[in-house]
Amino acid sequence: MKLCRTTVVFFALVALLAACERRSGSSQASTTGDVLVGMYGSLTGDGASFGQSSVEGAQLAVEEINNAGGVLGGRKIRLLVEDDQSRPEEASNAVTKLITQDRVVAVLGEVASRRTLAAAPVSQKYQVPMITPASTNERVTQVGDYVFRVCFIDPFQGEVLAKFAYNDLKARRVAVLKDIQQDYSVGLTDSIQKTFTTLGGQVLDPVSYSSGDADFRAILTQVRAQKPDAIFATGYYPEAAIIVRQARELGMMMPILGGDGWVGDALKNGREALKNTFISNHYSGENPDPVVQNFRKAYRARFNREPDSIAALGYDAAKVLADSITRAGTTDGPKVRDAIASADVAGVTGRLRMNASRDVVKPAVIEELQFADGDVKYVYKTTINPN
Amino acid sequence: MSLARKLAVIVATLTALVVLNYVFEYGFGDFQINPYYARIINLIGINITLAVSLNLINGLAGQFSIGHAGFMAVGGYTATYLTVYHGRQIAAMFGSTPAEPLGGSIVMIPSLLAGAAAAALAGLLVGIPSLRLKGDYLAIVTLGFSEIIRVIILNIPAVGGATGFTDAIPITNTFWIFAMAVLTIVITRNIAHSTFGRALFAIRSDEIAAEAMGINTTRYKVMAFVISAALAGIAGGLSGQLFANPLNPQNLNFVKSIEVIVMIVLGGIGSITGAVLGASILTILPEALRGFDQQFPGLRMVIYALLLILLMIFRPQGLLGRREFSWAWLRPVKRRAVLG
Amino acid sequence: MDTFLQQFINGLSLGAIYALIALGYTMVYGVLRLINFAHGDVYMLGAFAGYYLANAMNMDANPSVLGAVVVTTGAMAICAIVGIVIERFAYRPVRHHSRLTSLITAIGVSLLLEYGGQVVFGATPRFFPQMIRSQVYSVGGIQITNQSLMIIVVAVILMFGLEFIVHRTKMGKAMRAVSFNLPVARLMGINTDLVIAFTFALGSALAAVAGVLVALSIPRIDPLMGLMTGLKAFVAAVLGGIGNIPGAMLGGMLIGLMETWISATAYSTYRDAMAFAVLILILLFRPAGILGTSVTEKV
């Protein structure tokens, strides 16, 4: 009967494919040859620009480490990069492949928290350490003790911004523009709201937009009617630049604040509108610290453009990993994991030490932005330490 | 087929699936299924359900729907919501928890039922107004509904919003995936061979003539739509509760719907085996092209698009056209006697 | 009242963009009964073509109206050629197949342009140089930029231009004939292939103008920018009556105004969904669109 046959044929296919089986694998640790490190990122799709930045940063770090002699007695690090097309399920596929097929000793990635949250359980399951350069959602490191990050978490950055607005700018009534498609922005908004209200200020109902939007005049007009003292734009730099410009065009001259997501080459398109805007940051390109300046120079030479904060974080994640492998003296998963947990590295984005929740503990700076000589100038304002 | 025989087939199938599932999870002896391949096979199973269910509407009934991702979303989120917020209670009734294999499977039943029901309802709501439209307009309207659903989900924090439904408990396993795939194939097959199916074929061939012949085209179209949506909802429920595979509204969008369409177009619109084939090939292809992608990033998707265009130009009927796979293909061709 | 007027102006300027793109959709659909999914991506190509031209002419340092005109014309020419190429190599081979096949082909072309754009241009959004320095005019409590004004004015001019071509020229007559009945038009001696190519070229050129104008006022461009905008412009074309040129204009304005109005309420994230909701309602209650004529299908 046709039904049976279809089913049988179908199972035959499955069985054939399933015949691709192997003996139960050994651990990931290897003792000779290149040290394989996996990286997954959104090289295509709507997250492509951030994915590319994070990969470039990591690649730069790996090249520098290899040129300086590699790790574990001269072994070079080989970075295997997989694209996840900006999709969470592909992120999991990529990490599964990297770990079970390519047998990487550790994984770097991803930028968007939603993709890291999808793939981190895989890393945890196989006990392969994962360091995310830029996922700020609290829950990422809660997945398990093999998951680390080298960036702020949303609650901290939100606190920093809210405090600055309240204490330094004396704002009492603020509006928030959030990017509903980016969990970074949603998380940051929540945290700003909480802190600002606790301090005694008033936060107007957040107004939402989507990544990729280019026209904010409608929502800005509504915000204008509510007469806030200051505005928070908690999304990323492509939209931030336009928001700032269109706000000024509408006659809104109050301070506009944002997070580290504002840092990107394209921010300069905000032009003169950038006057009276502030951001919280870990990476400040203007920081005279040689670590930062050397990174900038090297990145510009290699990739022909100014690094953004995502690239800096990718760089730092790779550096922390390499440092940890060296200190562990082996590529064995659990030992590398322990080494990362006790890391203390001078990164481009600040001093990188992990706390008990495997998040880095580092201060944030507030910078005031200005537009001069055709580019953005970040003027240091103040530092806010984690408490 | 007699009732006894039918029951025997069902029991045999289920047993086979349980064995399959065991092998996938635990391996046997010194062997294990490579986890990466296992994951891909699981994804193939889910895509088969998606493709065959879409084939019911696009293939058998000849309507053009590009909103399948929307039904997958509705069903998936409902199913996952049930498990996350009520799963523990349900499993506890049987003395288990969702984390255990048995408890997980027990919870899966109401979860998938809920998902199917919600998606069916969505199918009804979308189908009744839209199925008065034809061709291109129907396509755009289904697209529109799918986008509206997506935007609504994006704004619901209880199911994760932009972060995705990461609270999901991974109760999906190979047994359920392929049990549902087989179910979908069986349902579609039975419909195709019934009066219902004939009505759909008539509608596909010439809707006005069918209406003139007394077939209530709207009713049949809506029914097909609802069934198709329910099955897509089941696929969504399976997908969202697969390990490390949370539902995310950004990715249950237009592009996802198009991918399912490409699967059935590749296999041949109207052919069930074609849909299975298309789903399998197109799940494996992106993974297989990963190496290529390393050399030329982004080119993978460009090739995908080119493939689609070339397929339409040179072989729009896909691999199997409207035919189904038949054992007759494997028999050697007899020489025909040539007369006179 | 201030806010209302401001939003009204915002809406008009957004609507003008949709109108320009909708014009292209409506013309191609009128002639070929094909929803050219790739049209939104031609708009994107127009913006990018303008970007490269403007940079080549170093417009950021020397803004000028003349330069802007040159850039726009260049973008129009490039997109016209792209439109013709797409039609010739992707759509003509499938013209005699089913509508479904054509639609899928159109989707394929759209994806090709988007992903291809990501490979060729890179996925990072670029910023268009300011070809004309932005100026804000304050009238009462309302702010309007010179770019927004330009968009509205240019869109209206182009619409009149298009109406002229379609109703007062021989080619326009041929276009209308082909849209009535292609085989018979061919029998009447009209070179249908040429007419179709011309239609595509014209529609694509209009999309290019939209791309450059938009890039001027909202300077961010990226390879995926055409997707959503294109779909909404299609909705606008259907709203106004597909195949009807003033309809496309009207539809575009209405969609722009509605979208702005929704953004102004608390439901701003449902903005995109709203366009589709409008589409669904229109197709249910008045499928021919506002200015369209109902055509009964003959069996």
What does this structure look like?
The complex is a heterotrimer of chains A (387), B (340) and C (299). Chain A is globular, with a radius of gyration of 22 Å. Chain A is α/β, with parallel strands linked by helices and 387 residues long. The model of chain A has no long low-confidence stretch (mean pLDDT 86). Chain A starts with a helix and ends with a strand. Chain A is built from eleven helices and 16 strands. In chain A, helix 2 (48-67) packs across helix 10 (309-328) and helix 3 runs parallel beside helix 4 (113-125). Chain A folds into two domains: 35-152 and 288-354, 3-Layer(aba) Sandwich (Rossmann fold); 155-281 and 365-384, Response regulator (Rossmann fold), CATH 3.40.50. In chain A, strands 7, 8, 9, 10, 11, 12, 15 and 16 form an eight-stranded mixed sheet that branches. In chain A, strands 3-2-4-5-6 form a five-stranded parallel sheet, with helices on both faces. Chain B folds into two domains: 1-33; 44-254, no CATH class. Chain B is globular and about 60 Å long. Chain B starts with a helix and ends in a 26-residue tail after the last helix. The longest helix of chain C has 31 residues, at 2-32. Chain C contains eleven helices and four strands, in the order H-H-H-H-E-E-E-H-H-H-H-E-H-H-H. In chain C, 72% of the residues lie in helices and 4% in strands. Chain C has a domain at 21-226. A two-stranded antiparallel ribbon of chain C has the order 1-4. In chain C, strands 2-3 form a two-stranded antiparallel ribbon. In chain C, strand 2 and strand 3 form a beta hairpin. The model of chain C has no long low-confidence stretch (mean pLDDT 85). The radius of gyration of chain C is 19 Å and the shape is globular. Chain C has 299 residues and is mostly helical. Chain C has helices spanning 2-32, 39-56, 65-91, 99-121, 146-168, 170-180, 182-187, 192-217, 226-240, 245-264, 271-285; strands spanning 126-127, 136-139, 142-145, 220-221. Chains in contact: A-B, A-C, B-C.
